[in-house]
Amino acid sequence: MRFLLFVASLLEVVSVAFAQTAQAVTDNPIGAHYIATTPAGGNKGIYATVSAETARNGVMFTININGAELTGGPFLYHIHDQPVPASGNCTQTLAHLDPTVRGETPVCDKARPETCQVGDLSGKYGDIPFLPGFNAEYTDPYVSLKPGIGAFIGNRSFVLHYANKTRIACANFRDISNVTSSGMISPTGSMGGVNGSMSMTSTPLTSPTGDTTTGGAESSSEASSTPTGAAVHGADANGVAFIGLTGLFAGIFAMIM
User: Fold this and answer.
1) Residue 94 pLDDT > 60, yes or no?
2) Range with the lowest mean pLDDT among 22-36, 75-89, 100-114, 236-250?
3) What are 226-244's pLDDT values in tens digits?
4) Cis peptide bond upstream of 129, omega within 30
């Protein structure tokens, strides 16, 4: 029996030794940003936010977990291969994200994170000693925010575990790359849209003559201008004076005749 256990352990070590190590991802899209937020599946009293965004040397994770007080730590957390289904069943997220097919044993060696499962975040960066009140921030070079490759996490899930690997809570990553602060205010005072673009309302602008234009665009009646830049509306002032003077002379000439 001991011999069989020894052989099994030896095979595990050999399989890890020959497994392909994770490769650093150097072409994550600029500005890519995904976030997973609980409660979604599992314990509804767990309030976790896991932010993943493109950084200079990989993906920067910012993690905050609060809510219900739990016993049974230290706690583990990973990125799992499949998303949380509509039922909220965390078990259906399947295994850890593992594009190199490394497996879970032997345990991750923090000193060699490239040899760990890509999704084993707590294995690479430390377990959670107690809950609530966990905060962490670090950059992982092996996770990807580029769709189409095995290390991509945008269509996967975050799962929180007890020390015995029982799943506590889970949530899907969603793309928030184009979402900016909802507090952005446009020049007209209206709030920006969800996509971060500012709503621009056309405001009447007063011309030098007192007329108004729409949105500041030059109207067809203001296509020509005087040397001073003022818009011309009606006859030229010199022309008006000339016509008036001509009428005066005509009247005098009629009286003489």
Assistant:
1) yes
2) 236-250
3) 333 333 333 333 443 433 4
4) no
Q: Which residues form the domain of 108? A: 15-175
Residues whose CB is less than 8 angstroms from the CB of residue 165 and which lie 6 or more positions away in sequence, other chains included? 76
Angle at Cα 26 formed by Cα 76 and Cα 60, nearest 5°?
40
Report d(CA 174, CA 172) in Å as an integer.
Answer: 6
Confidence (pLDDT) at 238? 41
**Positive/negative CA dihedral, 22, 173, 146, 180:** negative
Q: Are strands 205-206 and 41-42 parallel, antiparallel or unpaired?
A: unpaired
Q: List beta partners, residue 174.
A: 35
The pTM of this model reads: 0.65
In a domain? residue 79 = yes
Q: What are phi and psi of 117, to 5 degrees?
A: -60, 140
Q: Which two tokens stand for residue 52?
A: 């993943």
Q: In angstroms, rounded to a whole number, what is the distance separating the alpha carbons of residues 127 and 125?
A: 7
- Domain count within the chain: 1
pLDDT of 19 reads 60
Within-domain flag for 110: yes
Which of 255 and 139 is assigned the larger pLDDT?
139
Structure tokens at 96: 């850890």
Q: Can you state the percent helix, strand and coil of the chain, rounding each to 5?
A: 20, 25, 55
Instruction: Give the CATH number of the domain where residue 84 resides.
Output: 2.60.40.200
Neighbours of 192 (CB within 10 A): 16
